[in-house]
Amino acid sequence: MNKLVKLEWIKLKQKSILGEIVIYLSILMLLPLFFIKMVSADFGQNFDSLFELIKSIQRGMVLLGASMISQVFIEEYKNKTITLSFGYPISRKKLFLAKVLFIALFIFMVTIVSFLLTGVATYLLNQVLPIIHFSITGSNIVSYFSGMIVGSFIVTLISFIPLFFFAIWKRATVSTVICAIIAMNLPNFSPIFHFNNELMIVILCSIGALSVYLSIKTADRIGEI
User: Rounded to whole angstroms, how far apart are CA atoms 99 and 191?
Assistant: First the structure.
């Protein structure tokens, strides 16, 4: 399985995806300052408000997940290179599992890095342009790190929502991206519709997990060229 996961990295358009990651990280790490200065200073009044803002911003990494799904699944179908993979002496379910694991590990680690850079950038920028109006305590730092892990796991699961229907079944790149944009923004709009934000995230994570399950479970049938 390790070899299969490493093979996915070798096949990936590395320069393209790394350039995309640099863009995402550069934007996401500066967004908290922008929102607090230009949208609402309330985000900087206490740790909980600030961290909720950062978590919602980090869900932007779901778009990176859509890009990864497009490269790892959709492009291989369109270029017919996945036919070579189907020729390996391994089951298609195992092949799909390796692809899913590769995407999951990649998104999880990049989101962790994004959380760290955003936290550091927000702290340093606050020294120049005071935007945080509370003292950062040790418990805040512990909460940030634990929330960072949970938040990265959530982003990873939500990223898989388009996988089964739009990527493997329909093999549609644009629809995959649109689905990702909707999924990552739904929690932000839940208060408008008087819907519980945490429940919305649980539902989205469940749909992502179901999408992964169906993708692997039906690999021998839906995975046909």
Answer: 35
Q: So what's the pLDDT on residue 224?
A: 63
pLDDT for position 225: 54
Sign (positive/negative) of CA torsion 188, 200, 214, 212?
positive
What is the amino acid identity at position 69?
I
In the predicted model, what is the mean pLDDT of residues 5-12? 88
pLDDT the model gives residue 38 = 87
Is 136 in contact with 123 (CB distance < 8 Å)?
yes
Token pair listed for 94: 């195992």
Is residue 132 classed as helix, strand or coil in its secondary structure?
coil
Contacts of residue 198, defined as CB under 8 A and 6 or more positions apart, other chains included, come to none
For 209, the token pair is 């997990």
> What CA–CA distance (Å, rounded) separates 13 from 5?
15
Measured at the CA of 8, the angle between CA 94 and CA 60, to 5 degrees, comes to 105
- d(CA 217, CA 168) in angstroms, rounded, equals 12
How many other CB atoms are found less than 10 A from the CB of residue 210? 14
Q: What is the pLDDT of residue 59?
A: 96
Cβ(140)–Cβ(47) below 8 Å: yes
Q: What are the tokens at 68? A: 């990864």
The band of 104, judged by pLDDT with boundaries at 50, 70 and 90, is very high
Angle between the 92-128 and 47-58 helix axes, to the nearest 10 degrees? Answer: 140
Which residue's entry shows tokens 């990651």? 21
